[in-house]
């Protein structure tokens, strides 16, 4: 039997891209999925489509920069399905630009969503997972946590932070908490829409010539989820084959 069937999986940033693909794949494989993001009309559509296929799915509006929202999202997962087995901290933004342009508001937003959003997720779900005897955090990082490229200093910094937080959580998690970092290369999604600087947008389009479908990352996530409870997949890096 699949280790995915029956698991309660809460996913932040499930309204598009990787989060949406993960929600759809895990639901197809029998997970009970809980979708969170700000664009609730998108979530509604995905949940309706999944339910029409007899999959178990619910959604709640979520802004990961608001700690109360994240607490309420995890509570909602537990109220809906009785527990939370997996929290996928996936919500993220990538408004890249050179440091000298001083887009300080965008730096703040990246820190709030990409770092604090993950920390709020851990704060909300860790006590419940401990109480219920185990759980699994899947934190979506990036190859940007391995290599800094032009215009990506702050974005990379947030993803380096996600890796550090994940490793700390793994060490503190004891025998029952699993922690997986997923590090995608360029993947089809709406992420580049968060770039406001036109020159950076053009540079990134060039860089993202070889690109993965979001389903490829969803399959990597499913691989980590489906391992037996005593197997903790710590990191998966997925790049397009054509990326040098
Ligand atoms: P998308 O832009 O398609 O998805 C991002 C998701 O995050 C959306 O569902 C969005 O929903 C959500 N989100 C953004 N801000 C918030 C917020 N404040 N509160 C709650 N949800 C929020 O991009 P991806 O699917 O690519 O991004 C998913 C993750 O993958 C990110 O962490 C990203 O850094 C990472 N990643 C992506 C790569 C790529 O090439 N695509 C490569 C490496 C890593 P909404 O706007 O409705 O709130």
UniProtKB/TrEMBL annotation:
<dbReference type="Pfam" id="PF00106">
    <property type="entry name" value="adh_short"/>
</dbReference>
<comment type="similarity">
    <text>Belongs to the short-chain dehydrogenases/reductases (SDR) family.</text>
</comment>
<dbReference type="InterPro" id="IPR036291">
    <property type="entry name" value="NAD(P)-bd_dom_sf"/>
</dbReference>
<dbReference type="InterPro" id="IPR002347">
    <property type="entry name" value="SDR_fam"/>
</dbReference>
<feature type="domain" description="Ketoreductase">
    <location>
        <begin position="7"/>
        <end position="185"/>
    </location>
</feature>
<keyword id="KW-0560">Oxidoreductase</keyword>
<dbReference type="InterPro" id="IPR057326">
    <property type="entry name" value="KR_dom"/>
</dbReference>
<dbReference type="InterPro" id="IPR020904">
    <property type="entry name" value="Sc_DH/Rdtase_CS"/>
</dbReference>
<protein>
    <submittedName>
        <fullName>SDR family oxidoreductase</fullName>
    </submittedName>
</protein>
């Amino acid at each position: 039997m699949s280790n995915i069937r029956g698991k309660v999986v809460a996913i932040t940033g499930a309204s598009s891209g990787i989060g949406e693909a993960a929600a759809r794949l895990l639901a197809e494989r029998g997970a009970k999925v809980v979708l969170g993001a700000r664009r609730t009309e998108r979530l509604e559509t995905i949940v309706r489509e999944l339910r029409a296929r007899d999959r178990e799915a619910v959604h709640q509006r979520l802004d990961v920069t608001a700690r109360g929202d994240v607490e309420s999202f995890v509570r909602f997962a537990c109220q809906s399905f009785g527990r939370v087995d997996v929290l996928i901290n996936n919500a993220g933004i990538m408004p890249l630009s050179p440091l000298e342009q001083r887009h300080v508001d965008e730096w703040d937003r990246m820190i709030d969503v990409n770092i604090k959003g993950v920390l709020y997720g851990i704060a909300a779900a860790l006590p419940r997972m401990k109480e219920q005897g185990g759980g699994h955090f899947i934190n979506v990082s990036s190859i940007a946590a391995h290599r800094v490229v032009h215009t990506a200093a702050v974005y990379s910094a947030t993803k380096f932070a996600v890796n550090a937080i994940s490793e700390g959580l793994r060490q503190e998690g004891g025998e029952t908490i699993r922690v997986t970092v997923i590090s995608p290369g360029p993947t089809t999604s709406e992420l580049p829409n968060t770039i406001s600087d036109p020159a950076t947008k053009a540079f990134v389009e060039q860089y993202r010539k070889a690109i993965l479908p979001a389903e490829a990352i969803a399959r990597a996530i499913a691989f980590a989820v489906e391992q037996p409870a005593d197997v903790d997949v710590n990191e998966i890096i997925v790049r397009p084959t054509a990326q040098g």
